[in-house]
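hey so u asked for the seq, here:
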Amino acid sequence: MRILAVDDDPSILELLDSVLAAFGYKDVVTARSGREALQILSEPTEAFDCLLLDVQMPQMNGINLCEEARKIPGYLYTPIIMVTAMVQKQYIDEAFEAGATDYVTKPFEFSDLKQRLSDAYRMAAERRAAIEVMEADEHAWQDAEANQDLLLSDPFYLGDLPGCIGLAEFENYVIQLSTMHATASKIVAVKVTDIEQIYKSGSSGEFRDSLASAGTALLSATQEGRKVATYWGNGVFLLVHDNQKEFSAEKALNPLPGNPKEVGESAIACQVGEEVVLNATSKMEALFLIDKAVELAETRDAQVARFG
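ran it, structure tokens below
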């Protein structure tokens, strides 16, 4: 991988350069400011495969740099890992909203950073492959048989929706919140109950449009506080929101307003699972909370389908 590391502290850059070399990453470029980094990224040279950004820097902080980097052609899906001493929830929220792939706090374990780099590169490769498949199929979106490339269980990317991030990034976000800011947030799963009918009734392009419509309705129906969402697959959306007493997912999300052009004349039928407090002591526990939220929505959906 070709890596760009950005930090206003030269000692940190020197450390990162040594650590990355020990990991086998020999092609590392460093920058001491956001402006310098943007200039390097804009140069017509070989693209970088990963960006490591500090958050707290003068003039342009790492979060703003992340947001600007995503606008540069070729860097929409490049892994961006924040490497920072800033542990406050506000910075974690803003980093992922700006397009960060992962968030590592200083001081960090070398083995942990190595694993994050490996995971980030794999995620970017999978994302690029998925986008290529979607673009290749776009010309045939009217074909009712064109759904074969897209499985119902696929957690495809709905990144065009503000507040909606990829599943892998969402998992990293939940890990950070639940281990560093336990009980500050809750996660809830929302399932579109007639998802199989929507999937079978049209092409993959129409299916994606329907899910985008449902995601837009979900995010617009929940106005209170900060929220981050993702599409998990099987018609299930996951939503993390601030743990506020006045927030009620059941009241806010059910039923969602429908889009007649995409999902019929009636409102989008959905089932809201029970909210789960994000409180974990490890990565595995945090990922279990995501699975638990999905299970609560799907179990409730099955009960409604059976007895409703």
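The first strand starts at residue 2 and ends at 6. Residues 273 and 295 are 8 Å apart (CA to CA).
lmk if thats what u needed
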